[in-house]
Amino acid sequence: MPRVLLLIIILLFTSCAKDHIEVIKEKEVKSATEMILTFQDRPQEKVQEYRWRTFNSYEDFIKANKGYKSDLMAKSMHQLADIYMEIEENTYMRRKGGFDHSRSRVLYEEILKLYPKRSENGGILYQLARGYMEEGELNKSNQMLERIIKEFPDGKYSQEAAFRLGEYYFSLNDKQKAVSYYRQALKGDDSSLYEKSLYKLGWSFFQSKDYEGAADMFMALLQRKGISLTPEGKEEIGEISIIERDMVWDSINTLVLVFDYMGDPSKI
Question: How far apart, in Å, do the first and last CA atoms of the chain sit?
Fold first, then answer.
């Protein structure tokens, strides 16, 4: 018997029994999630019917039992909301219309209400921020990013949240706020985001005519990438990706301007 059918039987069997919620094993919930999403990519009529029966049974179980609070129920609700969002994005790709994440958002927000202290809520806030961004609701998206930084400062998504907020304020030419968020992004472990933050800090300082600050950021970036200057003034560049190469060359070219604007060699 396929695991997904076994899950359906378990779901239906436990739909009204609080004491049996834990019968659903985490790996079976994960299996159902993967199966539902896998079926979505297959257009065959029978597979579609089977997929939606499975999905509806999973959905009905959660609706009937979400009042019985448990870690497993919270995870099941979270996975269902992720499935909703996946379907919403695939629907957008097929129809080329506007994004509508209202269905996933309702469930995400319900999880936040029922389980306000859950450590995985940083991921929910991230999904909400992404959904609002795709719908063009930038203010609401930023509110979710702010919550990530405030409520989960050391969490998985805090560095990206800070960088995205820095990008938002940089685009508005609010360099003071942009710098503040880029600096926060330097506290994370993702080296790519760290280096992008150094680069954008360099540009923020340069556009604010803080040339010493700009030089510090661009030099810090070049040092991280192993870039050095020969006594003849030529660059020595190791192996870096094409995307990194563009950022590195732009940093070098901007440094030339920075040093020119600074003028006094003692400041360099």
Answer: 72
